[in-house]
Amino acid sequence: MYKISATERNNEKSADFETRSLFHLLNYHADSSEIHFFVVDFFNDVSGVDRYSNRIWDIQSKGKFVTATLLGNCLITLFKNYVSDFSSNFVSYILYVESISSRILIDKTILNFGIENVKSKEIKKVKQGLLDEAQSRTYIKEYGLSQEVLENKINEFLEIVTFVIDSKSKSELIKDAITVDSSIYPSDSYLNNIFKQIRDIQASKKLTSTEGEILVSVYDFLKYSKYINAGQIILLITSRLINMDLTNDNKVPLSFVPYVRLKDEKEAKDFLEECRNDIYRMIFDKNNVSNYWMFFENVWKTVKDNLTCDIDALFNKLNMKVYNLVPLDINSIKFFIALVKDGMRK
After folding, report:
1. What pLDDT is recorded for position 325?
2. In sequence order, which residues have a C-beta less than 8 Å from that of residue 238 and are 6 or more positions away?
3. 64 vs 71: CA distance, rounded Å
4. What phi, psi does 87 have (nearest 5°)?
5. Both ends of the chain: CA-CA distance in Å?
6. Which of 239, 264, 298, 337 suits a disulfide with 322, CB 3.0-4.6 Å?
7. Which residue range forms the structural domain that includes residue 328?
8. Distance (Å, whole) CA 23 – CA 57
């Protein structure tokens, strides 16, 4: 069993750093393609979970400058999960911080490293900082670890934890999530606003209190709706880039009206629903993200360069090799073109 503890409410800077840590898992972690859920304020600030809820990538964020002792203090919730009954499910432990005192590091230029990059005399302070914190926390005391076992666990844990120093602007985090030609990017202030929207969605998940809840299995987190799908993030970013709300099921792009005009009400509803569902499946397919962004870029550039063309003409100008990489039929592709075209008109 797993008891939820140490959940918290944050100020704006802390909330920013929790979203930065989410983007670290989404954009840069070696296993990012395997992470399906981003679970908020549950196992930790953010935890990535795979599609079947077998593996957890744990990340704790601290928007502050840390010394060796404070570095140890900051590891406490990661360590809690290391000694928990779910420990076999955790495959990665990451501390994401604003900055670390250069005095404690061997190579000051590395932004992603293990304990081997911390000077030997400073490692002792890190250990003591974590030990002091562990001995003061009720949720660690509940495991009934002896002093010797606790110290051994800390030594083992420090060998596998990863430290990441924040180095990206908000706009860079959004750009690195979408991988399209730089000509498509809106202004940095617009990208910063997208970051803020994702941060606010993430922060809203913390409003549901789960402190003290008992989980029997990892997938029990699904009961509480305190998570975001990777596809939801891509969907939101896409909606903002094309200036159209892809989640608005009642709206038909004006450019697409000719394709439904001759259908009766039920036929039109089913037809539009199929187009939208095809697009959702494409966006939510983590294994096809790079192909999706290639397709998006091709559609966006084609529409931008040919704004006076109708949907059929735009479709004929697309790169067939690119749209064959995504799971859309001709109707869904034309619907997507219409979304982009109408968004550019706004």
Report:
1. 92
2. 246, 283, 296
3. 10
4. -55, -35
5. 52
6. 298
7. 245-345
8. 13
